[in-house]
Structure formats: C-alpha cells, structure tokens
Design goal:
Elements: E1 6-12, E2 21-27, E3 34-43, H1 46-52, E4 69-76, E5 88-91, E6 94-96, H2 102-105, E7 117-118, E8 138-142, E9 147-148, H3 155-158, H4 164-174, E10 182-186, H5 190-201, E11 205-210, H6 216-222, E12 226-229, H7 233-238, E13 243-248, H8 257-261, E14 263-271, H9 284-288, E15 293-296, H10 302-315, E16 321-325, H11 329-337, E17 344-348
Parallel strand pairs: 10-11, 10-13, 11-12, 13-14, 14-15, 16-17
Antiparallel strand pairs: 1-2, 3-4, 3-8, 3-17, 4-5, 5-9, 6-7
The protein binds zinc ion (ZN) (2 copies).
C-alpha cells in the first residue's frame, strides 16, 4: 500500500483581524506509530481565541485552532499497539514532546524541557510548518498523545475534558484535593465549572468564589457546597483562613490578596488562567503569615489525562456544553468574550461537510 497525504478541510484564522473561515490543507501520511482520527467534536477554549487573534505572541497564519478533540480512529500505523479502527479517542493540548528529558520521563510532557509540541500553532517536526488543530475533519497524531474516551460518556460533552478537564484535574491531584479538604474555586467559566465537578467528585468540600450572584444556583447544582460573592467583603472575611487549596481560573488581572487570605496555614493557591497583563502583585505579608504559597499549573501529562478521563467515565462527569456548527465559530468567540456560554462551546464537526 502506498501511503499518501490526507486531504482535509478545516476553519482557519487568515490573520489576527479577519474572521475564521474555510481552509483546505493536508495532514501527513500516517507513520508506523501514528493514529489517523476522524474528528467528531472539538471544544472551544479561550486559548483558541487568544491565539487566533494574536493576543499572545507568535501566531503563525493561517491558524487552525482547537485542542479539545474527540473522534474515531480511521486507520493506525503498523506499529500502533493501543488503538484500533473504530475506537473513540481524544487529543488534547499536546501532540508531541522530546520523550527523553526528565519531565517527559516522569510523564509530565507538558513541561518538556525541549518544549512540547502544541496541538496547534507549534513548530511541526513532520511537516516543517506549524501544527494545525482540531477545527478540522481529520488529524494524525502519534499514539503516545492519543487518549481513550471511556464508554458511556457523551462524546461531545467529553471534548472539553481534554483541556478544561485536565487543566483543573492536574492541580487538584497534585495538591491532594479530596475527602477532608476544603477547596476554593475562583471563577465559574469553562475551567471553573470543571474544577467544581472534579473537586466535588474527589470528595472535597467546594467553595465557589464569583463576582456574579446570579451564578449561585448553577454553582450549587454543579457540586459546590458554598458560594461566596467575592465582591462582598463580609462574606470574604468570614472565609479567612479556612481553605486548604484554591484553584484560580480567572484570566483577567485581579487582586489576589482576598483569596490568599482565605487560605489556611500552608495553603496553596494555583493560577490556571493566563491573563495577557500581569496580576497586581499580592501583598507579601499575606504569604509570610501562614507560610502560604502562590503557584501555577499547566494542563497535565498524558498518563494523568487518561487517569482523569477514566475517573470521569467512572463518575459520569462531562462538561456542560452548547453545541454549534463551525459556521458559528466567530459569533461564539464574541459570546465567549462576554462570558455568554454555559459553560463550553463544542463544535459539531459534521457541519464541516456543508462548507
Ligand atoms: Zn485550552
Ligand atoms: Zn521532554
């Protein structure tokens, strides 16, 4: 059999200012360890918007975003052991790493010391160009970076687990959220709603901090035990020194001090939102008094991502989604900027057939 490049179609941003539109391109011919996936659904992450609009440095155009991918295996390379045609699989934020450095050896490919290959807008070792993401019909990925989607999960609602899910799961696990711990979640968006669901299922007591009183009912329904309106100084003061761990999902610069004050001695607040401008510096006094830590965390490793998916399979956890056809992606970006989504857009990739 002669392997050939795969003709495919997707949606790309042609420049920082132009809306996304149809884009024809090719995927590499699958090598021995590659999996060719027919993409069914792709979640829409804030990183997609930041990258498409060059709000972070280094966007190469045309840019095909998308790193919350769920699809079916179409074909596998001769040496692929873990996947077979017809399997329901996922691809998250990475498609490659060096596989040799200390971080890769520990299964923490996201911190690869030579730089992991992002699913989109990263130098592509195979083509010499940049990687193209999941707003497309097909993708070809090395099997080491392909995840199994457990039976019983709705494949569309499982897509956001590949970024929003693992981005919150990894720090919750690293800082031992579970039974007997009190976990704060700052912000109720795509990341925050997954943090609530996962922390609750891990057995933690979950406190949501939000600026919007109208999110109270939703937060409780998602699994929060308490909802605190973070603009209310009295409500905040009542939580001082009570939390073991906080996951802060807010991507806009804000005052971190009220949240650091809510930590117990030795408590940790981890930032997972990435603002384009820095947060104002926290008051060091708040850290010294109580030996508190302010930390950060980036997505999660491949083994950890599979662990999270298996946990979600066991507990029936998926994201709350609004499905859209790809033709509505530009409108979806505008709505995301207004936080007008509960809580993640997912693109139905069958809509590409009508491009
Ligand atoms: Zn993402
Ligand atoms: Zn590495």
């Amino acid at each position: 059999m002669i392997a050939t490049m795969i003709d495919t179609v997707g949606f790309a941003a042609p420049s920082a200012e132009a809306p996304l539109g149809p884009f024809a391109f090719t995927r590499r011919e699958p090598g021995p360890t590659d999996v060719h996936i027919d993409i069914l659904f792709c979640g829409v992450c804030h990183s997609d918007l930041h990258t498409a609009r060059a709000e972070w440095a280094g966007t190469v155009y045309p840019c095909v975003p998308g790193h919350e991918i769920v699809g079916r295996v179409v074909a596998t390379g001769a040496a692929v052991k873990g996947f077979a045609k017809g399997d329901l699989v996922g691809v998250g934020c990475m498609v490659d790493s060096c596989q040799q450095c200390a971080s890769c050896a520990e299964g923490l490919e996201q911190y690869c010391e030579r730089g992991m290959t992002g699913t989109y807008n990263s130098p592509d070792k195979h083509t010499g160009g940049v990687t193209y993401g999941g707003y497309s019909k097909d993708i070809v990925v090395d099997e080491k970076f392909v995840l199994r989607i457990p039976d019983g999960l709705d494949p569309a609602a499982a897509a956001p687990l590949l970024c929003a899910g693992i981005t919150t799961w990894s720090p919750l696990r690293h800082w031992n959220a579970g039974k007997g711990t009190k976990v704060g979640v700052v912000g109720l968006g795509g990341l925050g709603h997954m943090a609530i669901k996962l922390a609750h299922a891990l057995g933690a007591h979950v406190v949501l901090f939000t600026t919007s009183p109208d999110k109270r009912a939703d937060a409780l329904a998602l699994g929060a035990d308490e909802v605190v309106i973070s603009r209310d100084a009295e409500e905040m003061a009542a939580r001082a020194g009570t939390l073991d761990f906080i996951i802060n999902t807010v991507a806009a610069p804000h005052n971190l001090d009220p949240f650091l004050s809510a930590l117990k001695r030795d408590g940790v607040m981890t930032l997972v939102g990435a603002p384009a401008e820095p947060h104002p510096s926290p008051t060091v006094f708040n850290l010294i008094m109580g030996r508190r830590s302010l930390a950060g965390s980036l997505i999660g490793g491949i083994a950890e991502t599979q662990e999270m998916l298996d946990f979600c399979g066991k507990h029936g956890i998926t994201a709350e989604i609004e499905m859209i056809p790809i033709q509505r992606i530009n409108e979806a970006y505008e709505r995301m900027l207004k936080s007008d989504v509960k809580y993640r857009f997912v693109i139905d990739m069958s809509s590409l057939g009508t491009v």
